[in-house]
Amino acid sequence: MTTTELGNLEARGSSTRAFVLHPVLPEDRNGAREPESCLEEAVGLAAAIEVEVAGSRIVRVMRPRPATLFGSGAVEEVGAAIEAEQIGLVIVNHALTPIQQRNLERDWKAKVIDRTGLILEIFGKRARTREGQLQVELAALTYQRSRLVRSWTHLERQRGGFGFLGGPGESQIEMDRRLISDRIVKLKAELDEVRRTRGLHRKAREKVPYPVVALVGYTNAGKSTLFNRMAGADVFAKDLLFATLDPTMRSITLPSNRKIILSDTVGFISDLPHGLVEAFRATLEEVMAADIILHVRDVSHPDTGAQKADVESVLRDLGIEAESDERVMEVLNKLDRLGDEDQSTLLRQARRTDGIAISALTGDGIDTLFNAIDRRMVAGREVVEFVLPPDDGAAIAWLYDKGEVLARDDQEEQIRLRVGLEPADLARFEGRFPYKAEPGPGEVSARTARQEGPRPWQP
Questions:
Q1: What architecture is domain 381-456?
Q2: Model confidence, pTM
Q3: Does domain 15-120 have CATH number 3.30.2010.10?
């Protein structure tokens, strides 16, 4: 991640001593989150970049100051603590303007980054795929471009040029901003290519039509642990904020023998910078195109309600209304962290709201989740009939593989099949094979069909 704004924290490693501040502004005092919980989350974010958190503090700000955000008394008090503890990095769990950041660094004689800078630093450390690295760099450069006012010590110098870098008299800040803008244009073009590639992959999956089930949720809600539990995979999963950044996909088989593609995605977080949502839109397109969206919640967290609202806000930005979109299923995770009484309350709540209570760590409730996905898959399916020639084994095999054959009638010159198919699969079949469906008379129990196999033909 090429940005002078964030500095090279990685090079400093775990020896960097950090101080975490959570400012409570007047507009925050009636919010859904407790300040202590917000501070704890900020400390967790700091731990994700492997710095040593030497201290943390909640600072109540009565009147935010344009120059420093904090009042003069708070600036002096924090400055004394920074000097006493030999702090090299101060993390402010709030957005800072470039001027506020510069002034605080001057007063505290330490590097200062705000919440956005911290999240970008984490993303820069965790991104592994080329796509993830492009997305992080785009977000970081967009963030840095507005902060060149404080990123350079030589901004007042005038620079002569060779013509292709800028004419005589162009200031360093103008040239730096232009170079960053050029790089941003190139990154967007590369990400457009990623989107096109993803589109081709989706079209390829349509030819081998497996529905996509995407996991979404607040960071550290247990998505990767659930992914590993469902897929039998070994995706990196740790009690750490933003443990997963790059999307991961696996093909799995449901109890009905239906195959699906399970997709793990980057975790959401409160006050997620808009630029990051935009930068990761290529990844989040997998969520937008999913057949089922599993919203994984950490029900043991004290702010689980606020976290739910944050995730639904990001989904709304993607055009997905969680309350009304039938694709969204709520998965209440970390049941194992609750006491017996709280578990009973949660299970009653899950039954009332059609949620699924599970523990991805222990496996409790996973069978219920699989069955719920199965039911959701067949909820909108159509029961249709096909008349096929006996020698078209490919079409017959396709229907057995992708649909549920509920009845079959073998005749000398034709085979009549009654099949339960999802609308998307029906369209794929008719696009691939030269046969049109006839309306079926009704649906036989899918569970009975699985247990007993296709019944004899019954007109």
A1: 2-Layer Sandwich (3.30)
A2: 0.69
A3: no
